[in-house]
Amino acid sequence: MRDSFHHRLDVLVLQLARMCDLTAVAMSRATDSLATGDARLAEGVVADDVIVNQTRTRIEQDAQTLLALQSPVARDLRVIVTVLRSAEHVERMGDLAHHVALAVLRRHPDPVLPAPLRSRFQLMGSIAVRMAGTTGKVVRERDPVLVRTLDAADAEMNELHRSLFQVIGHRWAFGIPAAVDASLLSRYYERFADHAVAVAARTAFIETGTPALI
Amino acid sequence: MRDSFHHRLDVLVLQLARMCDLTAVAMSRATDSLATGDARLAEGVVADDVIVNQTRTRIEQDAQTLLALQSPVARDLRVIVTVLRSAEHVERMGDLAHHVALAVLRRHPDPVLPAPLRSRFQLMGSIAVRMAGTTGKVVRERDPVLVRTLDAADAEMNELHRSLFQVIGHRWAFGIPAAVDASLLSRYYERFADHAVAVAARTAFIETGTPALI
């Protein structure tokens, strides 16, 4: 049986994984509200962001308590430091989903995005949601193969972000506010993916001991 | 006299402060290149970003070595964890200066910003540079009064970012690419300020032991 200290470490890791799952749900709902203009869905994302923030607070407090009281070494120390450094990245993922929802509410009842951009953002959303779910799985299972699938998804996201500016640059008929909104929203999705990669790469470091500098 | 361990801690903190200074220089040059269209200045910012990144790598390696070898406790532990968690924020500040310089190079020889926006971005730049310098000072001296001056500067930055969208929304005569560039650039300055605040708030935690959740 695991002793009390190692049980608390396990709980810490599971809390972080759970936090990834919460941001996947938040980004899924935020993207749906962006596609449909559903303000109640967007309001739910805004309200639930508090839960992600509270989870981060609890994780950081627990990690700091374990660090201060137990003087952990080697792998145990790496687990705590990694969780401590990852929680804020995951909270940031939640913030970015929140930003998407706020954009929906700011323009409501008008849609934020013109119709030709909607499928692009649904694709970015589905990649982001899948990445957050994968990162949660990496945190739980620390499977290096899964970490590599995230790199491919991140590259796809970067390409979608980059190519948006070609779409906006040529024959754009939807006005400046829509162009600005689309640019910033695209950036939110792209940054969400970066944070998912950073957390997964860090978690891999728990096993290897090689620092991930992402 | 300080023992070898505490000397290494002092060096770690000074490296972090030095990294803040590097990002202040980078953002100052990036902003000048944005105002003047000086491509060589922008190229210098891009080239020097490597130094910031290398400093982060060295800081994180040193911090992890100290954590693993010395089993530090209490304040010493807080110093190491804080430095470890701050270095990536400062690296991100460097990345954001780098993003500004890349925008200049992408449009060169055309200016990125239309003339009426230049003074706004010079103001954002000067606030950002001052904030990075202040954060470096907080890291060195851990003065809580300085931390509070950062909050005021951050509020000013947020207001400048927010009000840009009013400027772009009404009677904008400079086309869509300029509106998109200005929006993203404004976001870079605003995020730069957020990271400066986060690092300073963290550093304050070294003395108080109260976690900063920024």
TrEMBL record, chains A, B:
Pfam assignment, any one = PhoU
Q: Where in the cell is it found?
A: Cytoplasm
Q: What is this protein called?
A: Phosphate-specific transport system accessory protein PhoU
Organism superkingdom: Bacteria
GO biological process, any: intracellular phosphate ion homeostasis
So what family is this one in? Belongs to the PhoU family.
Listed under subunit, the entry gives:
Homodimer.
PANTHER family recorded for this chain? PHOSPHATE-SPECIFIC TRANSPORT SYSTEM ACCESSORY PROTEIN PHOU
Q: What is its main location?
A: cytoplasm
**UniProt-listed Gene3D superfamilies:** Phosphate transport system protein phou homolog 2, domain 2 (1.20.58.220)
Instruction: Give yes or no: UniProt keyword Amino-acid biosynthesis.
Output: no
* GO CC terms of this entry: cytoplasm
PhoU domain residues are 16-102, 123-202
Q: Which UniProt keywords apply?
A: Cytoplasm, Phosphate transport, Transport
| Primary role | Plays a role in the regulation of phosphate uptake.
